[in-house]
Design goal:
The protein has 329 residues and is α/β, with parallel strands linked by helices. The protein has one domain: TIM Barrel (Alpha-Beta Barrel). Helix content is 30%, strand content 16%. The chain has ten helices and twelve strands. A twelve-stranded mixed beta sheet has the order 7-8-9-6-5-4-3-2-1-10-11-12. Strand 11 and strand 12 form a beta hairpin. Helix 1 packs across helix 9 and helix 3 runs parallel beside helix 5. The chain starts with 11 loop residues before the first strand and ends with a helix. 46% of the residues are buried. The structure holds S-adenosylmethionine (SAM) and iron/sulfur cluster. The site of S-adenosylmethionine has 20 residues, from strand 3, strand 5 and helix 10.
Length: 329
């Protein structure tokens, strides 16, 4: 099992399939100039499946989420999903994506064994989408969402980041639109993980502010805390339910005490936290012929050293060198 000294067990593995992306969200990447991981350093499809296999068979991982960068840019994605769906015990398989290209691949991904998707969409307005992502691909995301729903990758969840003065006025509209379409919306507080280190705590739209914006239109009642488990989102019933909305308050109300995550980067590094400043190199071990047991032991050691919390709001907080797009969000 992947345990740490605070008694937590990691059962949820986030696998980054690439650090590249077809959008340039302002809270994630600079417009240009970001250094990509070198091709030879990237794990092959087979290497990824082998590591996921070790995690599932030997280390107690029960859920695997593919992310990035943009995971739909990985040519072997459908094959990776299919191979992971063959593993025993069969893990839950999901994908976090910006939705571009999902219209083409949703059915094949479902067929391969994908269970669910989270699609990121911050705005209902095409021009605001361009301001936020520096690309004109709003309609591709909407098509992708519809295809995911049609393919049965449900419940389709939507992730949204609010940026002050850009899309924060849309909070309640986004919720209304998601309720209408049967998508479950989760707002994520903006975190200091952008490649350009431009995060400014004073500019961040906090969970409290998000709730005020939503309550201007909807009645929100907290879901019983027992339902939350290790999920990072605190959830509210909207107008008595069954519709719900979540808020992931990583900065103002961190959920580190219940964290059950372990992370594998596209270049084969294990990270025990999004905000970890050190990593454990499994790629090198793989490529120098280490057996499953040895790799499992390295992974266990990496998790054992997990800190109590990320402490983003603490004065001593230090932003990791690797941006979110190269860790896997
Ligand atoms: N490209 C895919 C996508 O956008 O869904 C997957 C990777 S992306 C890094 C995963 C999630 O992280 C997205 O929902 C995105 O909005 C969120 N994200 C990116 N940078 C963030 C930041 N600085 N703070 C909070 N969330 C962020
Ligand atoms: Fe790409 Fe996702 Fe980062 Fe946006 S948040 S730039 S879609 S990796």
């Amino acid at each position: 099992m992947l345990l740490d000294t605070f008694g937590r067990q990691a059962v949820d593995l986030r696998v980054s399939l690439t650090d590249r992306c077809n959008l340039r969200c302002t809270y994630c990447m600079p417009e240009e100039g970001l250094q990509w991981l070198a091709k030879p350093s990237l794990l092959t499809d087979e290497e990824i499946v082998r590591l996921v296999g070790i995690a599932v068979r030997d280390l107690g991982v029960r859920e695997v989420r593919f992310t990035g960068g943009e995971p739909l840019l990985r040519p072997g994605l459908v094959g990776i999903v299919a191979a992971c769906a063959e593993l025993g015990p069969r893990p839950e398989l999901s994908l976090t994506t910006n939705g571009i290209g999902l219209a083409r691949t949703a059915a094949a991904l479902k067929q391969a064994g994908l269970d669910r998707v989270n699609v990121s969409l911050d705005t209902l307005d095409e021009d605001t989408f361009h301001t936020l992502t520096r690309r004109r691909r709003h309609h591709d995301v909407l098509d992708g969402l519809a295809a995911a729903e049609a393919a049965g990758l449900s419940p389709v969840k939507l992730n949204a980041v609010l940026m002050r003065g850009v899309n924060d006025h849309e909070a309640a509209d986004l919720l209304g639109w998601c309720i209408e379409h049967g998508y479950e919306l989760r707002f994520i507080e903006q975190m200091p993980l952008d490649a350009q280190h431009g995060w400014d705590r004073s500019q961040m739209v906090t969970a409290e502010e998000i709730l005020v914006l939503l309550r201007a239109r909807y009645d929100l009642t907290p879901e019983p805390s027992a339902a939350r488990g290790a999920a990072p989102a605190e959830r509210w019933l909207v107008d008595g339910g069954p519709a719900r909305v979540g808020v992931i308050a990583s900065v103002t109300r961190p959920f580190c005490r219940a964290c059950d995550r372990t992370r594998l980067t596209a270049d084969g590094q294990v990270r025990n936290c999004l905000f970890a400043t050190d990593e454990t190199d499994l790629r090198e071990a793989l490529r120098s012929g280490a057996g499953d047991e040895e790799i499992g032991e390295l992974w266990r050691k990496a998790m054992w050293g997990k800190k109590a919390g990320a402490g983003i709001d603490a004065p001593s907080f230090h932003q990791p060198d690797r941006p979110m797009s190269a860790i896997g969000g």
